[in-house]
Design a protein that fits this description.
The complex is a heterodimer of chains A (about 250) and B (about 160). Chain A is built from 10 helices and 3 strands, in the order ααβββαααααααα. Chain A has about 250 residues and is mainly alpha-helical. Chain A is elongated. Chain A starts with a helix and ends with a helix. Chain B is mainly α and about 160 residues long. Chain B has one domain. In chain B, α2 crosses α4 and α5 packs antiparallel against α6. Chain B is globular. The chains are: A mainly alpha (about 250), B mainly alpha (about 160).
């Protein structure tokens, strides 16, 4: 058995889970479960949102194998989490060679995303949908379409420039607030509040908030703290962006 | 006369329950696309959002905001855990989308707006109400997840014994 290679594959499976927003306990349990099928004297897994360390010692061997992986970029892709989770269960119940495992992991990592057009459509549905949801009129929802598109565009472009999330959120929030203020003084006379709230829901870090909660329940306090800081920073960014925009517009209007 | 009453009932049902739930379903589909959920799971997770908002609207009619938040958080996480087992999908997939309509987005926005405008009394009032409803949702979710974890441990223990 090539333990170096197995460990490498396990780490990249764990990294796939972590990079797409899985909870800490899910990553740890997945890795532990894979090693259950192998004859191990010791398996230790340490996972925080930005780091992954696995150390194993096979039974009857003096050798200790350890590897770590630093996670830099994290996003949200629930399909990849599901597929990586499925693969892990499949590996435990079926006989799989390491080549097969590697191939399956690669397939998951390069899994398809929705087309760019569908993603824009999703942002519009969510953004203007929530502006209707929070009591907006059809005019407000119509105005929210543009700011939802802007949010998606800003996130894409800023992602390419590798700007930090804090600044990206300030920019997105300032843009959508300014747009709503403009629409409220335009002949359309949109309601400023509901035009802002809908697209602002796109900036709410729902994923980080939920995983942080689940990490607390599982007892992984470090991970939940890291996620919570992320939530607070995003929230501050959004508030700051809206504040800048409102103050600036109050001078102009 | 009774026809009028029926018509009134239908109108109020559409305006107060059906339309909001439909809108939350559509908005949740949008978020499902953003989070790259595919196939049947996309519809099922959006259905979770519709259910959570329906439970909220019905319970808030008979009780207060905080209890309604607690109950709908409870309901949606029950839904998420059940469908996670049926569909063999991590329950986060359903939970994240299902909780979205409950996120006090409007409350957070108004809290911030009152702060910016210097209306500190309204700011404190809104802030406390946002925090307490967020706490109530979290409590409902935590209760269900802890229950399910406990049940899983018990069934795993039994399997090991057998």
């Amino acid at each position: 058995m090539n333990y170096h290679r197995l460990l490498h594959l396990v780490i990249s499976l764990g990294a796939t889970l972590l990079e797409n927003g899985a909870e800490t306990y899910r990553v740890e349990e997945s890795i532990l479960r894979i090693f259950q099928g192998h004859d191990m004297a010791q398996v230790d897994v340490f996972v925080i949102p930005s780091m992954l360390i696995v150390t194993v010692r096979p039974n009857g061997s003096e050798k200790i194998y350890t590897q770590q992986k630093r996670i830099k970029v994290r996003g949200t892709d629930l399909t990849k989490i599901k597929e990586a989770n499925d693969l892990c269960r499949y590996y435990c119940t079926h006989d799989m060679t390491l080549d097969e495992l590697e191939q399956r992991i690669e397939t998951i990592r390069h899994g398809a995303l929705y087309s760019q057009l569908t993603q824009y459509l999703g942002h519009v549905l969510a953004g203007s949908g929530f502006s209707l949801f929070f009591g907006g009129t059809l005019v407000d929802a119509f105005c929210a379409i543009f700011s939802s598109l802007m949010v998606k565009f800003i996130f894409d472009q800023m992602g390419k420039l590798e700007t930090n999330t804090f600044f990206t959120n300030i920019l997105a929030s300032a843009t959508l607030t300014a747009w709503a203020e403009l629409m409220s003084i335009s002949p359309l006379q949109a309601n400023m509040d509901t035009t802002i709230i809908g697209p602002m829901m796109l900036l709410v870090p729902g994923m980080a908030l939920t995983t942080s909660m689940r990490d607390i329940i599982a007892g992984d306090y470090i991970s939940s703290l890291v996620k919570l800081v992320e939530v607070v920073m995003i929230g501050l960014g959004v508030a700051l962006g809206a504040y800048i925009s409102m103050t600036a517009m109050s001078f102009i209007v | 006369m009774s026809f009028d009453l029926l018509l009134q009932a239908i109108t109020s049902f559409t305006a107060e329950l059906f339309l909001p739930v439909l809108i939350s379903f559509i908005a949740c589909i949008g978020f499902g696309i953003i989070f790259n959920i595919r196939g049947k799971n996309l519809l099922l997770s959006a259905l979770g959002g519709a259910i959570s908002w329906m439970v909220y609207l019905i319970t808030v009619h008979y009780s207060n905001d905080i209890l309604a938040c607690f109950l709908s958080g409870f309901a949606v996480s029950l839904y998420a855990e059940l469908f996670a087992r049926i569909r063999r999908t991590p329950s986060t997939c359903f939970l994240i989308i299902g909780l979205l309509p409950l996120v006090p987005g409007a409350g957070i926005y108004y809290t911030m707006k009152y702060f910016v405008q210097g209306q500190y009394v309204e700011f404190a009032e809104k802030g406390v109400s946002v925090l307490s409803s967020a706490g109530a949702i979290a409590l409902g979710v935590m209760l269900v997840i802890s229950m399910f974890r406990m049940m899983m441990h018990i069934s795993a223990h039994r399997r090991r014994k057998a």
